[in-house]
Amino acid sequence: MKNAFKIILLGALAGFGGAFLFYIGFIKPELAQHQSETRFNTISYDSPATTSPAVPSYSTSPTTAVTPIDFSDAAAKATQSVVYINSISRGATYSTWDWFFGEGTGGGRTQVSSGSGVIFASDGYIITNNHVIESAERIEVNYNKRVYPAELIGTNPSTDLAVIKINESGLPAIALGSSKNLQVGEWVVAVGNPFSLASTVTAGIVSAKGRRIGILEDKFPIESFIQTDAAINPGNSGGALVNKSGELVGINSAILSRTGSYTGYAFAVPVDIARKVFDDLVKYGVVQQSFIGGNVVEYNFENATKYDLSTSVKNFNGVLLESIEKTGPAIEAGLKPGDIITRINNTEVNTQSAFEEELSYHYPGDKITLTYIRDNKTATVNLTLVNLNGTTDIIKRKIFSNTAIGAQLEATQYGVKVFKIKDNSILKQIGVPENFTIIAINRVRVKDPEEIVDFFGKYKGRGYLYGINSSRQQVEIPFMVR
């Protein structure tokens, strides 16, 4: 009985083994070949001459190749105009020893962050993001295997842009395109230095225009970003977004990510905005913003309901004038809260970002025509734009220079900012870093540069400064004046 059982078991195992070998040797290769053919060959349906049902046939001809888009010319043009920027700052730490010995040198660890910039003019002017350099006590530009010290010309937090300058001439300024003519779906190329990888080029399309994403921490932000899916990562900030011709269409500024790295959503400041910001900072030291004397919000179903406007319209075109100031161009021109503004001059403004972008191209004193809808009737009105102070004057940056104190001073909304500090300056000797804003000296608030000059011209002894460093940290600096 046992022998019979062994014979049956051996026979079964032999049968299974033979079947397995047959599958491996013959069946599986046939299946693999069939799957390979159906995956990589083109399936075409022939038109039969008879009325019999069409039978699919497998063509062995290769798939017609689509000619890839060549970005090499655009990349070659753009990369020569993009620079690598290092922003260097020193974390300020002051101890009791500083107070007693009057050193005031403020130890701390040197911090270096990097970004990108675009050569805007051949004589050394470079545009970048404000957030790339805003915490810097010293700025360095790496270009063509050389390191240049850079001078900060001006910043504009409203658009997250800044202009710096290096002492060099004959630089390859980038060719400027037009962001207004840029189309959604158009190919673009991003050039920058992500993760310290110099001259990195990526490509994508324009995903959207006029994006308002709420990232600018400023009283009057201008957000009308170009959205692209070209890969942009930390270090790309301030770099170039160019079209297929290698013309600048935007300054790469932000990514939308939960990880801090690229996830498919990147944003750039339109070049038309960047061009005006650059011109204003170089000419005036400050960007000229214009206002109508009123505030607009999105015109949509929700806001139409909120402000008791008709919600039966099919298209919510325009922006809603939410409020107006007691004095200013809007009220003088007869505009009222609830008016729907649809055009500035001949340009349609269907979103808040489009309205702010179009207004940003103008200067205080410019005369514009607004088209608006009130009570389902269209009308136009002319008005003159004003600056933040409510006048039509051009605002210029006021920098106070004093040889006795050996630094440049500028009044700000918080106190007095100190920069371009010379080595023999008393401020340098007591440990005041570059781009430090002095709020108080010995617990007395300071608002004007002259107050600092007068204080150090007369004071002797121990004291301390209270203020904000370039990294926005509140700092106390003990000092000794002998």
From TrEMBL:
GO biological process: proteolysis
Domain of life: Bacteria
SMART domains in the record: PDZ (SM00228)
Pfam families attached to this UniProt entry: PDZ_2 (PF13180), Trypsin_2 (PF13365)
Transmembrane segments: 7-26
PROSITE patterns: PDZ (PS50106)
Keywords: Hydrolase, Membrane, Protease, Transmembrane, Transmembrane helix
Keyword Hydrolase: yes
Domain (PDZ): residue spans on this chain: 298-376
Molecular-function GO terms, alphabetical: serine-type endopeptidase activity
Keyword NADP among UniProt keywords: no
Protein name, per record: PDZ domain-containing protein
The species this protein was found in: Chryseolinea soli
